[in-house]
Write a structure and sequence with these properties.
about 15% helix; seven-stranded antiparallel β-sheet; about 350 residues; six-stranded antiparallel barrel; 21 strands
């Protein structure tokens, strides 16, 4: 619903002004203008029902939800605040019948301004890129890392030769702020980065080793998809099966087990064969997972996993952090520890 048109006019044309959508609050009165059902200019009124709505239309969803009646034909119309400034562009509705049921969505004006500026300057929209794989921070992960509460985006992987790698981001970091904005979770980080053009130099605050660290990163262009591989065969000195005090069957990686479970040669760690009832691993691990790190320390044998978990218990930690490879994807799991 966004486009930039150039008009050659012989006189100044009347125009509306953009407002600051970030200052709009839930409960603020708004007016939606559009052309519902081809009737012509129509104004409806309502309030902002919610901010930051994700309707699964794309990775950068950040809609204003309004209850002002919006129908077919309203798309692309402006959403005004009571100061007469445009704080959104109407774009979608939720409706079982196709008509308005009081749930409409508008693109925030601050996002519109960014898109229009890029169209004017570059002729296309370019979104910033860091080059990180991220996941949400659970309460258990926050406890294992010493974070006061669960927030931020946890880095599960860093793309080689990416802005993130050049800026010093490491696997296991939790990104808590980007360009002066708090990062609540992965979706917020993706949107905040996308709003910056390539080449923007921004401060990125990460939580690492129990403290905050500020990095400076220059955003890049989203690269074309390409397959990356780093073949490093695993050399497992101990190929036995161990249950141990964790009440789970763990095994070192062997060629046969890699073939059986479809584990790549460049993945190193300890294979989870079975998780028994009452095991601490019942909280999130499953057969076929590969434990790569325990509390940010690499492990290659079942004994190392057992020792690392026992160490965490002896230090009276509330949770232990695992880096796990599962079906080709790396993710972090925070597992609560029952301290006797």
């Amino acid at each position: 619903d966004l486009a930039l048109l150039k008009i050659d006019a012989k006189r100044p044309l009347p125009a509306v002004q953009f407002g600051n959508s970030d200052k709009s609050e839930v409960g603020d009165w708004v007016m939606a203008v559009g052309n519902p059902f081809g009737l012509g200019g129509t104004v409806t009124a309502g309030i902002i029902s919610a901010r930051g709505r994700n309707i699964d239309s794309g990775p950068y969803d950040d809609f204003l939800q309004v209850d002002a009646p919006i129908n077919k034909g309203n798309s692309g119309g402006p959403l005004f605040n009571l100061d007469g400034k445009v704080i959104g562009v109407n774009t979608a509705i939720y409706s079982p019948s196709g008509g308005s049921v009081g749930i409409g969505f508008s693109i925030p004006s601050n996002m519109v301004k960014s898109v229009v500026a890029q169209l004017r300057e570059n002729g296309k929209v370019e979104r910033g890129w860091l080059g990180v794989m991220i996941q949400p921070v659970t309460n258990e992960i926050a406890g294992a890392l010493g974070l006061e509460n669960a927030h931020g985006a946890m880095v599960t992987g860093v793309t080689p030769d990416s802005p993130a790698q050049h800026g010093g981001v490491k696997q296991g970091d939790v990104i808590t702020q980007f360009a002066g904005q708090k990062v609540d979770g992965p979706r917020e980080l993706a949107r905040q980065v996308a709003e910056k053009p390539a080449g923007a130099k921004e401060d990125v605050v990460v939580w690492r080793d129990g403290q905050e660290k500020t990095l400076q990163i220059v955003t890049g262009h989203q690269p074309a998809p390409e397959q990356m591989a780093n073949a490093q065969p695993s050399m497992a000195p101990d190929s036995g099966l161990h249950s141990g005090s964790l009440n789970a069957d763990l095994a070192s990686l062997t060629p046969d087990r890699r073939a059986q479970y479809g584990i790549a040669d460049n993945v190193n760690g300890v294979l989870v064969m079975d998780v028994k009832q009452g095991s601490v691993f019942e909280q999130g691990l499953r057969s076929g997972d590969v434990i790569m790190k325990v509390d940010q320390t690499a492990v290659t044998t079942p004994q190392e996993v057992n020792s690392a978990v026992e160490k965490a218990k002896s230090e009276e930690k509330k949770a232990v952090l695992l880096l796990v490879e599962r079906q080709g994807q790396e993710l972090y799991l925070g597992l609560k520890l029952n301290i006797a």
